């Protein structure tokens, strides 16, 4: 009889390399929010994959970038902080890179310090030719003793299975840390905050990229007139400037209504309940440097 294995796997890489897309594909559920904006993931999110003979707990981390605020510094600390806590690291790079850039060099230096088992994932191979992929494999294989190098494109089922099987090779015998019905450690409150932020990032222009912070103020369950369970949720979107507040609300409140409508649609599927969602917008100019807020993003 095959022994049951378990372990923790961190996914690390620069901003926008596709880490959140990969983690959602591996889990088969939407766990991490995805946008085409940089620095979308702000904290370490756990995603759980239950297989016949293993349980793999993935940790999606913030993208490595040059920090300009306390929030930025915390995001970098969070990403690098996960490396020493896991059994295996998935290091994700883009196939479109012709050389190892500063961000990837910094990650490699951290990996060498910990001497962890690392699988290199080369993403977006559909954007380049085979010669470019071969060149990149050659360059990276000289920098670190990777357990495996796996080129992937817009994550296909076959590629997902290849990654999971490769990870299972290096897992140790161990227990299931989470119930088999669970696929994330995020609370309902966190899912609400992240879903609203995702919709805002997707709908708004680059004028309001990362000055957004969403906070749930109230979240209670009750019953509708037809006795259906319903979540009554009150939230605030904090932004850095008065001009940003106007953009988020939009003319006659149209933009805020769109954000709320799209978020409600996703949340009703995720939480399997009707949602009564109220969103306010407030200016909080220095939230990215406020310790009381920043501590929420720290990796414990």
**Which structural class matches the secondary elements?**
alpha/beta
CATH class of the largest domain: Alpha Beta
Q: What do we call the CATH homologous superfamily of the largest domain?
A: P-loop containing nucleotide triphosphate hydrolases
- Enumerate the spans where pLDDT stays under 50 for 5 or more consecutive residues: 33-42
The profile of the biggest β sheet is:
7 strands, mixed
N to C succession of SSEs: EHEEHEHEHEHEHEEHHEH
The CATH topology of the largest domain, please? Rossmann fold
What percentage of the residues does DSSP assign to strands (E)?
A: 25-35%
**Total number of helices:** 9
The 3D shape can be described as globular
Task: Kindly report the average pLDDT value.
Answer: 82
Structure, explained:
By secondary structure, this protein is α/β, with parallel strands linked by helices. The protein folds into two domains: 5-173, P-loop containing nucleotide triphosphate hydrolases (Rossmann fold, 3-Layer(aba) Sandwich), CATH 3.40.50; 188-297, K homology (KH) domain (GMP Synthetase, Chain A, domain 3). It has helices spanning 19-27, 70-81, 102-114, 130-141, 157-170, 188-203, 242-249, 254-271, 291-294; strands at 5-13, 45-51, 54-60, 88-94, 117-123, 148-151, 172-173, 213-223, 229-239, 274-283. Strands 1, 2, 3, 4, 5, 6 and 7 form a seven-stranded mixed beta sheet that branches. It is globular.
């Amino acid at each position: 009889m095959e022994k049951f294995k378990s372990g923790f796997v961190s996914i690390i890489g620069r901003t926008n390399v596709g880490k959140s897309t990969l983690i959602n594909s591996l889990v088969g559920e939407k766990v991490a929010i995805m946008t085409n904006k940089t620095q979308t993931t702000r904290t370490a999110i756990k995603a759980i994959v239950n297989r016949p003979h293993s349980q793999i707990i993935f940790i999606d981390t913030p993208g490595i970038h040059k920090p300009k605020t306390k929030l930025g510094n915390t995001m970098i600390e969070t990403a690098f902080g996960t490396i020493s806590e896991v059994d295996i690291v998935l290091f994700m790079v883009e196939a479109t890179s012709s050389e190892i850039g500063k961000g990837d060099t910094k990650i490699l230096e951290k990996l060498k310090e910990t001497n962890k088992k690392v699988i290199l994932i080369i993403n977006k191979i559909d954007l380049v030719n085979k010669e470019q992929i071969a060149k990149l494999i050659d360059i990276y294989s000289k920098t670190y003793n990777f357990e495996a190098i796996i080129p992937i494109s817009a994550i296909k089922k076959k590629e997902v299975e290849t990654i999971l099987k490769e990870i299972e090779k290096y897992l140790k015998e161990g227990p299931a840390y989470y119930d088999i019905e669970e696929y994330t450690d995020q609370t309902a409150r966190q899912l609400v905050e992240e879903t609203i932020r995702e919709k805002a990032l997707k709908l708004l222009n680059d004028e309001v990229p990362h000055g957004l912070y969403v906070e749930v103020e109230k979240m209670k369950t009750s019953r509708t007139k037809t006795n259906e369970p319903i979540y009554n949720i009150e939230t605030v979107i904090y932004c850095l400037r008065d001009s940003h507040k106007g953009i988020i609300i939009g003319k006659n409140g149209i933009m805020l209504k769109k954000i709320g409508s799209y978020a409600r649609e996703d949340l009703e599927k995720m939480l399997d309940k009707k949602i009564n969602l109220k969103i306010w917008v407030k200016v909080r100019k220095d939230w990215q440097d406020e310790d009381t807020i920043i501590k929420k993003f720290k990796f414990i």
